[in-house]
Amino acid sequence: MIKERTSKPTEKMLKEAAKGEPLSGEELAAGLKQGTIIILGNTLRAGKVRPTAVGKGTRTKVNANFGTSRDASGIKEERKKIQIAIEAGADTVMDLSTGKDIEQTLKMSLEESSVPVGTVPIYGLAARALAKGCKFDDISEEDFIDSVIAHCELGVDFITVHSGLTLEGVRHLENEGRVTGIVSRGGSFLHRWMRFTGKENPLYTYYDEILKVAGKYNVALSLGDGLRPGSIADATDRCQTTELLILGELVDRARSVGVQAMVEGPGHVPLDQIRLNIQMQKEICKGAPFYVLGPLVTDIAAGYDHITAAIGGAIAAAAGADFLCYVTPAEHLRLPTVEDVHIGVIAMRIAAHAADVAKGLPGAADWDLKMSKARKKLNWEKMYSLSIDPTLARKLRGSRRPRDENFCSMCSELCALKD
Amino acid sequence: MIKERTSKPTEKMLKEAAKGEPLSGEELAAGLKQGTIIILGNTLRAGKVRPTAVGKGTRTKVNANFGTSRDASGIKEERKKIQIAIEAGADTVMDLSTGKDIEQTLKMSLEESSVPVGTVPIYGLAARALAKGCKFDDISEEDFIDSVIAHCELGVDFITVHSGLTLEGVRHLENEGRVTGIVSRGGSFLHRWMRFTGKENPLYTYYDEILKVAGKYNVALSLGDGLRPGSIADATDRCQTTELLILGELVDRARSVGVQAMVEGPGHVPLDQIRLNIQMQKEICKGAPFYVLGPLVTDIAAGYDHITAAIGGAIAAAAGADFLCYVTPAEHLRLPTVEDVHIGVIAMRIAAHAADVAKGLPGAADWDLKMSKARKKLNWEKMYSLSIDPTLARKLRGSRRPRDENFCSMCSELCALKD
User: Fold this and answer.
1) Whole-number pLDDT of residue B31
2) What range defines the domain where residue B409 resides?
3) How far apart are CA A205 and CA B202, in angstroms?
């Protein structure tokens, strides 16, 4: 009954998505059929968005979040962030606006972005509730589903739905106890609404409705982890795991009606539990693409969380995570600036590439080989052009010029490479 | 015959070294006896240097390199780097000067630094050879040993000696071929001297002389890896492994006369080969402390190599590496600035701490727990003070002030933590 009008990625989309991948269009189609690969691209944005494959055997992808908050930024700055993120090599962007002009910001994003755009549709509801002084009584179950429908119809390419946060997960949350409770913005809003109304999560109850509209426009579901750990002490606990089990169920249901789904993952996770988390997701969610936030391997480095996330992201992707959400130096401290966005994307791209090399992704290490050959020849122009951030590489070397232009100011003529 | 006057770490040094460690003085003494732990501190600097334990069961340590090059910097800037490195939490520093005033810079370092100071004694010879137009004919075998003796007698706490770079390693280097050849400054200088003279490495031939003077002043030997890979393509090859075998032999010889020794390791290593490298070193060198440079998990990120090194360092330390040499954003591009030193130390401390948490080092995760409890309470002053870089954390949050001082400008009143 659900699948009245299901759009699937077209041949053309598959072909485009295969560019820059070690897989052919046919191989992508096979993964798509199994559900181990998804292709991002709302049919309403056909021709505007670069169809992007996420999943098994594809290059590890990197997402950059942006968006206003109540306290800071506006459409102009957010447009700049999209541009900078794409320039720096982000594969997707997510508009997480919760400030004023939410709808206008999203429309601008969909116009501006050549890469897939994701959102968390219920943020609009949360902002509305906040504006009214945290009133939940005028937010109905229908409002949740309507927010999802609205974003699909606007052309959003993938949406986070926290459909796995159920009353059973909340029971574990309360019963086990946590250091940092809920740290997901969407998860916390849902939890408050559930507590206020005593009802089950409408994104779970009416999941079929979500599948219907997602299928209609080829919107990929990003099954959110509202109960992700916000401190390493909370990692891999009962409430996180309960939610993961529901996410596995929701993957099955999406697949059964031909809707694309991936799963979101933590969060704050100590280094030695990262592989475990990836393996659990891959088993429980039957190989669905895994989209992780970091993970952050320690809680103590606010200001440097692009680094804690790059450590965790590299390990996660090498262990099988498919899609890394960047974390900027601003995390835990402020709304990111344009420069934060730039650094965040580069740091996570380093992690993604290091993981692709480690996994033996065909062709991944060619980039390193070209760079190292140029380095051995002391061919600086080639080294700049092969650097992940050519502008910065040129700037740093230029800022302390060597006397002999063949070298750099670190070792000067003692450069070992001329050996 | 060698051990005419061997100094050992005193009871007092062990007691001081145990501060901030999960091990007691007695446990340190046991590790010291087995050779799995060393205590850095030249007897000539007793009272001036903080005795520092490196090895099994101790907190992962971080070293910061500094030093002039021919092209840049001077004593004043290098003094500032030492101060900044120690403030940022470096456990040791290494003076790698190759510019003018080498001896004065080292004397300043030994005066300035409250933490152990390391050097590569042969750099002075290399700089002298360079100043004379890369002439090797007036550098004798005795000169190599004399450079080592001079540094031990000046009070240096640990010295890198590339005694494992032998003619057999060079044979493999030439025979197997490499993308980036030799990238170690000391290794490349030795190699050129060996090629010029046709002689075996004097640091190997006269290793007993080195042991004699090191033992006299409780100088720890850092057995250098002159053949470390300089690109991920070269990682774990025959010449690197040949050198590691010799380093294992040299550890045995040092232990047999009661001289403290650790082993230096790579370098550029793909993520999936890091654990292998640590396990190989631990087996071949019979549990000797392992001091690694990074490792860098990709070659393509000049300008961000503090991040590539933090990824590799965290994985290496979690797998058993004991001591991480920082890498700054300047690596491959310029002599580091004071700010580069600061960022480099913080990035590697994040890696070291994440690894200590992962290894389950007693007490390591307490820091994270305190931070996360403060975060849950939205206690910003406490969060700042617990941050790895309190000044930066305060600055970032302050730069985009929230309207409501309880939160930050990222989520403002939608902060999930108030759930």
Assistant:
1) 97
2) 365-414
3) 76
Could you count the other beta carbons within 10 Å of the beta carbon of residue B132?
A: 12
**Nearest C-alpha of chain B: how many angstroms from A20?**
18
Residue B299 Cα to chain centre, angstroms: 20
What does the pLDDT look like over A113-165, one tens digit per residue? 999 999 999 999 999 888 888 778 889 999 999 999 999 999 999 999 999 99
Contacts of A321 in chain B (CB under 8 A): none
pLDDT of residue A224: 98
Which structure tokens are listed for B171?
């044979």
Here the CATH number for the domain that contains residue A38 is: 3.20.20.540
Identify whether residues A376 and A322 lie together within a single domain. no
Do A405 and A307 lie in one domain? The reply is no
Please count the CA atoms within 13 angstroms of the CA of B259 that sit on its side-chain side.
31
Q: Is the pLDDT of residue A5 over 70?
A: no
The answer to whether the beta carbons of residues A224 and A186 sit under 8 Å apart is yes
Residue A411 binned pLDDT confidence (cut-offs 50, 70, 90):
confident
Q: Which domain-ending residue is among A358, A379, A400?
A: A358
In a domain, A8, yes or no: no
* Cβ pair A89, A342 in contact under 8 A: no
Q: Which residues pair with B54 in a beta bridge?
A: B38
Q: How confident is the model at residue A200 (pLDDT cuts 50, 70, 90)?
A: very high
**Which chain A residues are closer than 8 Å to B231 by Cβ?**
368-369, 371-372, 375
* A77: in domain: yes
Q: Does A277 share its domain with A409?
A: no
pLDDT tens digits for A373-388? Answer: 999 999 999 999 999 9
Interchain CB distance below 8 Å, A307 and B350: yes
Residue B4 lies in a domain: no
Question: Which residues between 77 and 136 in chain A have a beta carbon less than 8 angstroms from any beta carbon of chain B?
Answer: 98, 126-127, 130, 134
Kindly state whether residues A265 and A202 are assigned to the same domain: yes
Q: How far is A5 from chain B (nearest CA, A)?
A: 36
What are the backbone angles phi and psi of residue A136, rounded to the nearest 5°? -110, -10
Best interface-test mutation with A: which of B338, B410, B411, B413 has the largest number of A CBs within 10 A?
B410
Asked whether residue B142 is domain-assigned, the answer is: yes
How close A29 gets to chain B, by Cα (Å)?
Answer: 29
Location of structure tokens 């290794």: B187
Residue A2 has a pLDDT of 53
Tell me if chain B has a CB within 8 Å of the CB of A350. Answer: yes
Q: Residues of B319-354 as b/e, b for ≥16 C-beta within 10 angstroms?
A: bbbbbbbbbbbbbbbbbbbeebbbbbbbbbbbbbbb
Number of domains chain A is built from: 2
B403: pLDDT confidence band, cut at 50, 70 and 90?
confident
Instruction: Give A-chain residues touching B128 at CB under 8 angstroms.
Output: none
User: Is there a single domain that holds both residue B77 and residue B116?
Assistant: yes
CA A71-A74-A80 angle, to 5 degrees, is 125
Predicted pLDDT at B100:
83
- B400 and B340 together in one domain: no
Determine contact: B386 vs chain A, CB below 8 A.
yes
The helix/strand/coil state of B308 is helix
Please report, in angstroms and rounded to a whole number, the separation of the first and last CA atoms in chain B: 71
Residues of A in contact with B315 (CB under 8 A): 271, 311, 315
Same domain, yes or no: B125 and B203: yes
Q: Are A70 and A134 spatial neighbours (Cβ–Cβ below 8 Å)?
A: no
Is residue B188 over pLDDT 80? yes
Are B384 and B399 part of one and the same domain? Answer: yes
- Look at residues A340, A358, A376 and tell me which one is the last residue of a structural domain: A358
